[in-house]
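Consider a typical record:
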Amino acid sequence: MKKLMLMVLIAMLLPWTSAQGAGRKILFLPHDDRPISYHQTVEVVEGAGYEMLLPPKEMLSNATNMGHPEELWQWLRENAPAAKSVVISSDSLLYGGLIPSRKHEVSQEELAERLDNFVKLRRENPGLHIYVFDSLMRTPFEGWVGNIEEPAYYETYGAHIFQYTRLLDKGETGKLSASERRELQAHEKAIPEECRKDWFDRRQKNLSATKRLMDMIKEGVIDYLILGRDDNAPLCQTHRENRQILAYAEEKNLPKSKFQSLPGIDEFNILLLNRAINDMTGDIPFVCVRYGIGKGGDTIPEFSDEKISDSVEAALKIAGGLRVNTPKRADLLLLVNTELKGRTIDTLNTCPTEADFIPDLKAGKDTKAFVNMTEEAIAAGYPVGVADIKYANGADNALLNLFEKKNLLRRLQSYSGWNTPTNSTGFALGMGLLTRKMDAARKDHLLAVRYLDDWAYQANVRSWVGTELVRNFGSYKYYYKLDDKLDFAEKRSTELMREFAKAHMPWIPTDFTVKLPWLRMFECDIVFPK
């Protein structure tokens, strides 16, 4: 009854709320064409019965081009009148995409013109609901061979840049020791002045653009703005800039109901799409969250600067839901698989060698307890989603092994263990809120994609193929930049993925192929025949 009354109140407060046909059409402009950013997210929303308007894939940034901002703006202006809501990446519209935002050469004048296009979009479409996600530039702790996401000099000086900004951040929030001050000077000296200037100038330019987007909230141009801190750390340049952002939000008195800044980025697609849908329908999903034993929700996972419980709470706000304390009232029970002591186990086989990769199937007491919690919740009839964040990238093999043995894989509402912990929690939440609106066949397909991607590929096949690349071609560099080894990697990934699926997920058709669209082993695309 309380939920019904709350929904009625929201509907009264939002006169534009509608569940009619036009209200089921959403325009979506992602930050690149990676499978998780583009069609995997779209499949979830379309499976729930909503029509998506998407830009041609060739307009989006990918592994070999920096995107097409002007063409995207034209497409957006032409198609916005046909939609009720738009969920758009500001990185795509300002710089070309997420990765181009980190190494672009866009002038201040061009940025100002592109920012003004948001104002024109609102003027031309006064009834459109505009949801925007933006990003603070990340600060990787080091550079590595074949990295396409940072300026070329980051491979050589990235570790110095990270440590330099870590100490700058620490000095501004606390006090540096004498040895730390010497270390700061040494790192600064190790970075060529032209590289340091290029890196900081671009960041300042992007930061100014973000503040302009924040101004547009007060001006009524943007209905909701999310700012992501991708690949973040408790002390670094990204964290420094976020302190500026939070101070600016306070100065401008931005309401938390319209602006949020939090770790992550890739999960914002599905969370904002959930919000658009819930705003259209007047729905307010209730979510109960439980964590693994031990550190649990107090875990500060890798690539983040805050507790995972805070990130989950923020993600739920983005989606337009409310947290409840009991699963009896919940539309989704989100279970978060954390490591007992609050650690994030490193990315699986980050740098492959000739040694065989052997998955760790030994379940500790934390994993066993988590499986028992999941099994009991499903037996009680609760709709359960699982966010698997024990590893930095990829599923927890021991957990999925027990899920398989206990026949739990197909009984979940959602699962995600794809990328950074906040990516996984956000996607598991967003997917779980939408699969409740689907039939079993659609939900099974979406679960199959996640198990194939997060478990079969990320936690196993990727490492096996990485080992073969080293053995056959003598270098791990192909793991990050496949070049002429692309055909070999795709063929072997397809073969091994099909074998894995037959052994562990016999309900999944094995006529799929595996593609590596970003010309590296980091992500894959599972292509089923149409």
Q: What stands out?
A: The radius of gyration is 23 Å. The longest strand covers residues 129-136.
